[in-house]
């Protein structure tokens, strides 16, 4: 049997490194306690790592540019800036980057707005850490992470069941 060439070994080392690399998650949340709590949940997961934490929209956009994360968790309401506007900016800068919006606001109104702006997920702040982690993996896997309530609302709108109603999310 022949020994593997250096080139083959280099490829297998690169493949192993790529497979073992932790997914980089950027957090944009203006409340330090909430931001640090989310970061603890993310860092506890063996496949995830926080690459940056920011409290403002400007900081978050800079972090996206600097760190090139695999996914972003973004508060919909920020003290300095607007999470939906940041989402639009991120989507314009990096259309394939999955962004999950975090919010205390009624998902039946804001989740659709977030989706229209480019969000791949929407998690209520009342959710547990496990739900946030599950949403991260869903969006990184190419899927979306919206509650069944939002999914049913979207399906009703698409199927025409709500055509005669004025949409609460008309922007």
Can you offer a commentary on this structure?
This protein has 171 residues and is of the alpha/beta class. The protein is built from seven helices and five strands; from the N terminus they run αβαβαβαβαβαα. It has helices spanning 6-20, 32-44, 57-67, 83-93, 107-117, 129-140, 148-158; strands at 23-28, 48-54, 71-75, 99-103, 121-124. A five-stranded parallel sheet has the order 2-1-3-4-5, with helices on both faces. Strand 1, helix 2 (32-44) and strand 2 (48-54) form a beta-alpha-beta unit. Helix 3 runs parallel beside helix 4 and helix 5 packs across helix 7 (148-158). The chain is globular, with a radius of gyration of 19 Å. The termini are far apart. The model has no long low-confidence stretch (mean pLDDT 86).
Observed structural traits:
5-stranded parallel sheet; 16% strand; 171 residues; 5 strands; alpha/beta
Please specify the SSE layout and strand pairing:
Elements: H1 6-20, E1 23-28, H2 32-44, E2 48-54, H3 57-67, E3 71-75, H4 83-93, E4 99-103, H5 107-117, E5 121-124, H6 129-140, H7 148-158
Parallel strand pairs: 1-2, 1-3, 3-4, 4-5
Helix pairs in contact: 3-4, 5-7
